[in-house]
Amino acid sequence: MSDYSFFNDVCSYVDKAGKFTEHPIGLIEQIKACNSVYKFNYPIRLADGGYHVITAWRVQHSHHRLPVKGGIRYSSNVNEDEVMALAALMTFKCALVDVPFGGAKGGVCIDTGDYKVQELESITRRYTTELIKKNFIGPALDVPAPDYGTGAREMAWISDTYTTFFPEQINAYGAVTGKPVSLHGIRGRTEATGRGVFYGIKEAVSIAEDMKALGLQPGLEGKKIIVQGLGNVGYHSAKYLQEGGAIITGVAEYNGGIYNEDGLDIEELLQLKKSSGAITGYNKGKAVENSLEMLEYECDILVPAALENQITSENAPNVKAKIVAEAANGPVTKDAEAILLKKDVMILPDLYLNAGGVTVSYFEWLKN
Ligand code: GLU
């Protein structure tokens, strides 16, 4: 799949939808285009005295509404195509939930596990400074937020750097969202994406007619669910789904998964992940070394809540879930989508299902 382009996949959805409109072809081209793609390299000093050159991006997909909005991802797999696709998804996500922002996304190509906290702080502060230099951040211009590999701590560093440069700006705290509550953040932002995933699934399974077509009973109660990813989105989605009566039978992490047909305790799994860095040592379930296999396990609802490109044309024919709930951005490729739809699998699309995060970011921005 080396020729796979996430951005092309996203664009092909626009082409598909565009056919249902009267828009001229040139306008569809403009809707797809990334307005600004900024790639930059900068050095940071390591704790041992050495240096690393960091490669990073900020992509502003659409300026039709300002500021543009979207998270910053820290991952060693970050690349330009990915950041462009994620920025485009932000445009469509904001439009769908009528949050008045254009779409953007940032990426820093690092494995966070390779760096000490002070080094991550240097990486984040310098990233922010580079954005300031080029006018790529500001409460009325471009407002970052957390994404894969980042959280409230990183947003606090960004906010502190930004306000240091612009102490006179009365709106300066609105230059980034997802900040800690004690540093001008907003209650509920951390849980917001997972909470939205929960409500989206709960609503979908409440429609008796649709459930009948899938051979399922209406309601969350007793639904067997496998979640991929126990990060912020995966954990909160699983927690609320479990509290809502569903049974979490599997959790797949990048370094191994856990399965138990009778259900897992999400809080216990999170504690284990925090203390040991993995969940495979959990003694009330079967460890699954190659956790990608779990996407093909028997379940009612599959919740990919990690990264894009997880359900592909290779594993889609083996997916047994009746509902695939896209908590992550772009977890099902376009080719895989066609296969799943042919099998009558219901897909709850990412830009609807995970829009809770940016929605609460909007409230934080407004408050700031
Ligand atoms: N990174 C999140 C997303 O993909 C949140 C973006 C934001 O709050 O601006 O939707």
Describe what this molecule looks like in 3D.
- The protein is of the alpha/beta class and 368 residues long.
- The model has no long low-confidence stretch (mean pLDDT 97).
- It contains 12 helices and 12 strands.
- The protein has helices at residues 6-18, 25-32, 80-96, 117-133, 152-165, 189-205, 208-214, 232-243, 266-276, 334-342, 350-353, 356-367, and strands at 36-45, 51-60, 68-74, 102-108, 142-146, 224-228, 247-253, 256-259, 286-288, 301-304, 323-325, 346-348.
- A hairpin with a 2-residue loop joins strand 7 (247-253) and strand 8.
- The protein is globular.
- The strands form 2 sheets. The chain has a 7-stranded mixed beta sheet with strand order 9-8-7-6-10-11-12, sandwiched between helices. The chain has a 5-stranded mixed beta sheet with strand order 1-2-4-3-5.
- Helix content is 38%, strand content 18%.
- Glutamic acid (GLU) is lined by residues 69-71, 145, 147, 177-178, 329, 354, 357-358, 361.
